[in-house]
Design goal:
about 400 residues; about 40% helix
C-alpha cells in the first residue's frame, strides 16, 4: 500500500501540485514564513476581528466570556453538550433571519451534514453550480445513488434548462449555490435564482454565505438578508470562522427541517459539540456586526481599488466582486512562480492550483481585509503588473 501512496505523491510533485504545511507566526496583518515578514493576503478575517486586540479584550472583559469559559463541550449536544449559550445564540440568529437556527462545528460539518441528510429524502435532484464548495460535493458523495447535475457557473440559462428538463422527473429539486463564491469571488445572481424557483412548486434553494456573512450588507448580515430574499432561501448556511473571527457555523431553515437535521445530520449527532467559549465568541461578534460599518466600508473601498488597479494590467483575468479578488494566471508552475516572487517582495498570497480550481484557471486568490493600508495595495498592483510584463513561465 505504501508504494501506491508514494506513487500518488510523486505524480503530484511532477504536476507542481504537491501540498505541504509550513509553520507561520502571526502578528496582526502579517505572518512570518521562514523568518520573513509578509503581508497576509490569504486570510478570511475580512473585518480583522481575529487580529483586533481591542475587540478581543472587549470580549474577554464581557459577561458572555465569563459565563462560558469552557474549552470543551465534552459531549455531543444530544447528550450533555447542549450548553445554554447554544440556545441563546440560535435565538439571536432566528430573530434576525426569521428562520430556525442550528449550530454546527464548522461550515464543512454543516454542509456535509445537511446536504447528506437532504439527499436521503426520496426522489430529489440536486442542481449545483460548477463552482460550488467541495463540502457540498462531499455531502452528496455520502450517497452513491444521489441525483446530481451541474450548471455552468452563475449561468442562469444553464440552470433554467436543467430545471425545465427535470422538474417533472423528481419530487423535489434543490439548487446549491453560494452567496459569494470562495474562489471566483463573485456573487450568485440570487434574484434570478429566486425567479426560477417561483415558476415551479418543487424547488428549494440552498445558499452558503460563508464568505458574505459579516462582511457584506449594511449590518453585515449577508447577501440574502440585504437583498430581502430570506423567505425564498430555504437553507441558509452561515459560518463564523471568517469575517466573525471565531469558529463554527449554522444552518437556518424551517422548524421541520431543523428537527430533521437534529435527528439525521451525522456530522452533528456523532461529534463532540463545539466548545461553549467559541460559541460565545461567535455570538459576541454577531451582536457587534451592525456597529462595524466603518470596517465594512474600508473593506469595500479596498476591493474596488484593487480590482480597478489590476484590470489595467490583467484585463479579463481579474475575477471578483467584493472581498475576494482572483487573478487567473493559468498553470500550476506559473502561479507558483508568482507566489514565490511576491514572497520576495513581502506579500503572502498562496497559489490556488488545480484541481482545487479547474485546469487552466490556476490563480492567485487575494483575500482582502478592512485594515490593509492603501499604500500596500498600490505597491502590490505595481509588482503584479511588473511580474506580468516579465512573463514568468
Amino acid at each position: 500500500m505504501e508504494h501506491l501512496a508514494k506513487f500518488a505523491l510523486e505524480r503530484l510533485k511532477q504536476s507542481s501540485n504537491f501540498r505541504s504545511f509550513y509553520p507561520l507566526k502571526h502578528e496582526g496583518l502579517f505572518v512570518y514564513k521562514n523568518g520573513k515578514k509578509l503581508l497576509n493576503l490569504a486570510s478570511n478575517d475580512y473585518l480583522n476581528l481575529s487580529s483586533d486586540i481591542d475587540f478581543k479584550q472587549e470580549f474577554l472583559d464581557s459577561e458572555i466570556y465569563r459565563k462560558n469559559l469552557y474549552f470543551s463541550a465534552s459531549s455531543s449536544r444530544s447528550l450533555s453538550g447542549n450548553f445554554e449559550i447554544f440556545e441563546i445564540f440560535e435565538e439571536a440568529l432566528e430573530k434576525v433571519y426569521g428562520k430556525k437556527a442550528l449550530l454546527f462545528n464548522s461550515g464543512y460539518h454543516a454542509n456535509i451534514g445537511a446536504i447528506s441528510s437532504l439527499a436521503n429524502l426520496g426522489n430529489v435532484l440536486f442542481l449545483a453550480d460548477k463552482s460550488i464548495h467541495a463540502s457540498h460535493i462531499d455531502g452528496l458523495k455520502s450517497f452513491k445513488k444521489v441525483a446530481l447535475k451541474r450548471f455552468l457557473h452563475n449561468d442562469m440559462q444553464s440552470l433554467k434548462e436543467l430545471v425545465e428538463k427535470n422538474h417533472q422527473k423528481y419530487e423535489n429539486i434543490i439548487i446549491l449555490s453560494e452567496g459569494l463564491f470562495s474562489m471566483e469571488g463573485d456573487f450568485a445572481p440570487l434574484k434570478e435564482i429566486v425567479e426560477i424557483k417561483k415558476q415551479y412548486q418543487n424547488i428549494y434553494i440552498y445558499l452558503d454565505e460563508a464568505h458574505s456573512i459579516g462582511s457584506f450588507g449594511e449590518n453585515g448580515y449577508g447577501v440574502a438578508y440585504t437583498l430581502e430574499l430570506l423567505k425564498e432561501v430555504d437553507f441558509l448556511v452561515l459560518t463564523f470562522g471568517k469575517a466573525l473571527g471565531s469558529v463554527g457555523a449554522c444552518v437556518l431553515c424551517s422548524s421541520i427541517f431543523r428537527d430533521y437535521f437534529v435527528n439525521f445530520a451525522r456530522s452533528l449527532i456523532y461529534s463532540t459539540a463545539i466548545p461553549p467559549l467559541c460559541v460565545a465568541m461567535s455570538y459576541f461578534a454577531f451582536l457587534k456586526l451592525p456597529s462595524l460599518k466603518q470596517k465594512k466600508e474600508r473593506l469595500a473601498q479596498n476591493s474596488v481599488a484593487l480590482k480597478e488597479g489590476l484590470l489595467e494590467s490583467f484585463s479579463s483575468k481579474v475575477l471578483g466582486d467584493y472581498n475576494i479578488i482572483s487573478l487567473v494566471l493559468g498553470g500550476n508552475a506559473r502561479v507558483i512562480s508568482f507566489q514565490n516572487a511576491l514572497e520576495e517582495e513581502g506579500y503572502f498570497i498562496p497559489a490556488i492550483k488545480s484541481p482545487t480550481v479547474p485546469r487552466g484557471k490556476e490563480s492567485l486568490r487575494i483575500s482582502l481585509v478592512a485594515d490593509i493600508k492603501k499604500e500596500d495595495l498600490k505597491r502590490l498592483i505595481r509588482i503584479l503588473g511588473k511580474l506580468n510584463n516579465e512573463n514568468l513561465f
